[in-house]
């Protein structure tokens, strides 16, 4: 009886659930609008009119976008940037964080102080641009990867997580003959899967949504990322997918093409996120409390 009473919802619970439901619906409505417009056939499409169920469905906008060289090139560039950038982010973040957890590491406190300084002070756009230029990375994908191999926030969180792993496990592994690299690959990494999943999602989303740095460092349109192309389509009324009048040849409303490009830009992250959600929630909490 007491268990049933403890589970009884209060007025605050109902208000809380109601508010969260309303916020969820409001957040989902723009995405629903984009999907519906992108799937509306050109014969029944009316600009700026929203229908829950279009009179006629069509995948022509998606078929057209996915057949254009500019979109395929941008999608390939963004996929390469996301995969390679995320992999390098994980390698540098976890190896450096693991090194900072070793108390016998030389200059450990000095390195940690420099990490914290970068968390507080940012050099700004111009020094970053001059650095990328002097390194010869302008108009290359390296300009979008090497300057952001890791960051102070990720290092601090991962370091805190790794410090929560019992030191007895590492000591026992070393007594059995494991080297430091053996401990890292055989003990630390398998126990760090929730954190790896969480930061994989963090880094992948950051690389997939790369826009400002791409605009700043890339001048070759063949190296544009997906977000730069989508921005050009959505905000530049005179632009099209190929640089010529191919849109008019297809007799498709430019609004449906632009909306479909936005949906395609969001789709990969929306598909991947549910598979990492469980590890993501666990990884965010791990390392927050020690002991």
TrEMBL record:
One GO CC term, this protein: plasma membrane
InterPro entries: MetI-like, MetI-like_sf
UniProt-annotated location(s): Cell membrane
Pfam (any one): BPD_transp_1
Protein topology in the membrane: Multi-pass membrane protein
Parts of the chain that traverse the membrane: 12-36, 79-98, 110-131, 143-162, 183-208, 257-276
Keywords: Cell membrane, Membrane, Transmembrane, Transmembrane helix, Transport
Top-level lineage group: Bacteria
Annotated ranges, domain ABC transmembrane type-1: 75-275
Family the entry assigns: Belongs to the binding-protein-dependent transport system permease family.
PANTHER family, A to Z: ABC TRANSPORTER PERMEASE PROTEIN MG189-RELATED-RELATED (PTHR43744), POLYGALACTURONAN_RHAMNOGALACTURONAN TRANSPORT SYSTEM PERMEASE PROTEIN YTCP (PTHR43744:SF9)
Protein name per UniProt: Carbohydrate ABC transporter permease
Organism (species): Paenibacillus cremeus
């Amino acid at each position: 009886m007491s268990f049933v009473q403890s589970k009884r919802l209060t007025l605050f619970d109902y208000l809380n659930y109601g508010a969260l439901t309303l916020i969820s619906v409001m957040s989902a409505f723009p995405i629903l609008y984009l999907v519906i417009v992108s799937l509306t056939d050109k014969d029944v499409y009316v600009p700026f009119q929203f229908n829950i169920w279009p009179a006629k469905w069509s995948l022509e906008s998606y078929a057209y976008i996915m057949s254009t060289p500019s979109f395929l090139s941008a999608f390939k560039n963004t996929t390469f940037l996301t995969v390679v950038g995320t992999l390098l982010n994980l390698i540098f973040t976890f190896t450096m964080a693991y090194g900072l957890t070793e108390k016998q590491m030389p200059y450990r406190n000095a390195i940690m102080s420099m990490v914290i300084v970068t968390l507080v002070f940012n050099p700004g756009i111009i020094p970053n641009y001059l650095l990328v230029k002097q390194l010869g990375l302008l108009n290359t994908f390296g300009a979008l990867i090497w300057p952001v191999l890791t960051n102070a926030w990720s290092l601090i969180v991962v370091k805190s997580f790794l410090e929560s792993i019992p030191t007895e496990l590492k000591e026992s592994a070393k007594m059995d003959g494991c080297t430091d690299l053996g401990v890292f690959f055989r003990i630390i990494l398998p126990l760090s899967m929730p954190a790896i999943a969480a930061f994989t999602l963090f880094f992948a989303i950051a690389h997939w949504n790369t826009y400002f740095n791409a605009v700043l460092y890339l001048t070759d349109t063949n190296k544009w990322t997906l977000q730069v192309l989508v921005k050009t389509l959505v905000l530049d009324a005179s632009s099209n997918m190929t640089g010529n009048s191919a849109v008019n040849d297809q007799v498709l409303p430019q609004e449906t093409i632009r909306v479909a490009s936005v949906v395609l830009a969001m789709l990969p992250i929306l598909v991947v996120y549910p598979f990492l959600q469980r590890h993501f929630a666990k990884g965010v909490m791990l390392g927050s409390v020690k002991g």
